[in-house]
C-alpha cells in the first residue's frame, strides 16, 4: 500500500537546508525548546530519502526523545518518507543517564558521536542530528561545541525566532566548515508546558518498560560505569562493623580501594566523621544507599553498546545480587552496567534525581 506523502508547512527559508539534505552530508540542528527541530529533522530526512539518498536521523534530544526512551540518544534509518520522527523505530540507542544534559555533558556528547558513527557505519549518506533545546549559557556552549567537534557536521542548521542561538554560532562565523544556515521557526509549532513535557517522558518510559520482567543477576558479572561502587575489594566484616560504629549509621557494604574506603550507608553521614574515618584508611567516600533505589541503568554489551535500559529495584549487598526490571530479553548477555542519575518507577514516574557525585 502506498504511504501518504508527508504534508508540512515548510517556510521558504528552509530551502537551503533541503538542498543540503538532498546533496548528502551531516546536518546538525540547533534551536531552543519548542522550536520545531524534530519536525525539521523529519522534513530534511524525508527530502534526502525521496532523492534516493540513504538517510538516517540521530535524536540527541534526551528529554523529549522520539527515537527510543528518554535519557538516551537514538538512531534510525528511513525506509520511506515520514511525517514525524515518532514514525521511526530506533535501531540503536546509547544511554546517557539523564533526560537533561546538565551534569552529563561528556556522556551526552559521547552518545551522540556513538550513534552518528553507527549511522555512518550502516551507510547513511545524509545524517540529520537533532539536539536538545538547551541553548542558554556556558553549559549550552560547552555541549554544542563538543558535539560539533565530535560529529564534524557539514552544516549547522540554526532554527530561531530572533537571534537566540547566535552566541552558539559565533565561533564558526569565519570557518569554512561547518557552514551555517539560519532558518525561521515554522508557524505551526505548538509550545508544550513543563508539565506536558514531563507527562510525555513518563508515557515514553512507561511504554518502554511495559513488557519488562524482574531478573536477578550478580554484580560481579556486570562491571559498573559512573560509580566507584564494585571497583574495589569487598572489605572483611570487622571493617564494615568498625565503619558502622564510627559513622553511627547502618553500613550495607564496604570496599577497600587504593584510595581508601568506599562505604554504602543508609543516609548521608556527617562530613567531619567521614573525614576522621578517611584519616584511618587513607581516604573514605560514602554513597547513600537511597540513591541506588530504583535507579535507571543502561545494560551494556561486549563493546559497550547499549542493549537496553533497566530499573535497579533492589540490591542484596551480602550476596552481591541485583534485581533489575527490564524489557531486555536476555539480561544475562549484558557485560556491564551504566548507572544513570534518574530514579524511576515501572510506569515511568520519575521518583527523584541524583546530584553529580552522589554515586561516588
CATH topology descriptor of the largest domain: Rossmann fold
Fourth-level CATH superfamily of the largest domain: P-loop containing nucleotide triphosphate hydrolases
Total number of β-strand segments? 18
How far the N terminus sits from the C terminus, by CA atoms, comes to 55 Å
The helix content, as a percent range, equals: 25-40%
Query: Which descriptor suits the 3D outline?
Result: elongated
Binned strand content: 25-35%
The number of distinct helices, counting runs of at least 4 residues, comes to 8
Corresponding CATH architecture of the largest domain: 3-Layer(aba) Sandwich
Radius of gyration: 23 Å
- In spatial order, strands of the major sheet run 4-3-2-5-1-6-7
CATH class of the largest domain: Alpha Beta
Q: What's the pLDDT, averaged over the residues? A: 93
| Count of domain modules | 2
Order of helices and strands: HEHEEEHEHEHEHEEEHEEHEEEEEE
Regions with pLDDT < 50 over 5+ consecutive residues? none
Quaternary structure state of the chains depicted: single chain
* Structural class category: alpha/beta
Largest sheet: 7 strands, mixed
Amino acid at each position: 500500500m502506498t504511504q501518504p506523502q508527508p504534508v508540512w508547512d515548510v517556510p521558504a527559508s528552509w530551502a537551503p537546508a533541503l538542498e543540503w539534505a538532498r546533496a548528502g552530508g551531516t546536518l546538525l540542528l540547533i534551536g531552543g525548546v519548542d522550536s520545531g527541530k524534530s519536525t525539521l529533522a523529519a522534513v530534511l530526512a524525508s527530502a534526502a530519502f525521496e532523492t534516493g539518498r540513504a538517510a538516517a536521523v540521530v535524536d540527541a534530544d534526551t528529554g523529549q526523545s522520539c527515537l527510543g526512551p528518554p535519557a538516551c540518544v537514538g538512531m534510525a534509518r528511513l525506509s520511506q518518507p515520514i511525517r514525524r520522527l515518532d514514525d521511526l523505530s530506533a535501531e540503536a540507542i546509547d544511554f546517557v543517564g539523564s533526560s537533561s544534559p546538565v551534569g552529563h555533558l561528556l556522556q551526552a556528547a559521547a552518545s551522540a558521536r556513538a550513534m552518528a558513527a553507527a549511522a555512518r557505519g550502516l551507510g547513511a549518506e545524509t545524517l540529520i542530528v537533532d539536539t536538545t533545546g538547551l541553548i542558554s549559557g556556558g553549559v549550552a556552549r560547552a555541549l554544542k561545541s563538543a558535539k560539533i567537534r565530535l560529529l564534524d557536521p557539514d552544516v549547522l542548521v540554526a532554527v530561531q525566532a530572533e537571534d537566540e542561538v547566535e552566541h552558539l554560532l559565533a565561533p564558526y562565523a569565519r570557518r569554512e566548515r561547518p557552514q551555517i544556515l539560519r532558518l525561521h521557526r515554522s508557524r505551526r509549532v505548538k509550545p508544550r508546558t513543563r508539565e506536558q513535557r514531563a507527562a510525555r517522558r513518563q508515557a515514553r518510559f512507561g511504554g518502554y518498560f511495559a513488557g519488562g520482567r524482574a531478573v536477578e543477576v550478580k554484580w560481579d558479572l556486570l562491571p559498573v560505569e559512573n560509580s566507584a561502587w564494585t571497583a574495589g575489594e569487598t572489605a572483611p566484616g570487622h571493617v564494615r562493623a568498625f565503619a558502622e560504629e564510627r559513622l553511627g549509621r547502618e553500613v550495607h557494604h564496604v570496599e577497600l580501594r587504593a584510595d581508601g574506603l568506599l562505604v554504602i550507608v543508609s543516609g548521608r553521614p556527617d562530613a567531619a566523621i567521614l573525614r576522621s574515618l578517611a584519616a584511618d584508611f587513607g581516604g573514605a567516600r560514602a554513597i547513600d544507599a537511597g540513591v541506588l533505589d530504583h535507579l535507571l541503568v543502561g545494560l551494556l554489551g561486549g563493546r559497550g553498546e547499549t542493549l537496553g535500559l533497566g530499573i535497579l529495584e533492589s540490591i542484596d549487598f551480602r550476596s552481591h545480587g541485583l534485581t533489575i526490571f527490564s524489557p531486555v530479553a536476555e539480561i544475562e548477555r549484558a557485560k556491564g552496567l551504566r548507572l544513570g542519575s534518574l530514579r524511576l518507577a515501572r510506569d515511568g514516574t520519575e521518583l527523584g534525581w541524583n546530584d553529580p557525585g552522589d554515586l561516588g
